[in-house]
Here is the input.
Amino acid sequence: MIKKTIKERTKEFMSELKSENTQQREPKSTRRTASPEQIDSSTQRSTQRSSLLDESFYPNEVHHNVICDGCNKGPIVGVRYKCTVLKDFDYCQDCEATKPHPHTFLKIKKHG
Here is the structure.
């Protein structure tokens, strides 16, 4: 008798629990999607990030205590190109564009 009552109550409890779970779920049509404002703000942030990477954003950036090894001008103004192999070898943006070099460079847009 007790076992039967426990089984019945367990079934009732499980069915109530299932019905509560289905009521709590949001239908697919009411799920949240990104609003146009959120999309616009994320696009603005990525545009801002990409503009920070653009050389023209730092056209007059001065790299103090750095002399171009191609033309001997110093300090380098604009983009600085640092050799990844040689310890102390830098090109200004003009020399990097016109003079050959066997190694790859790091492109440094902002001093520091």
In short: The mean pLDDT is 77.
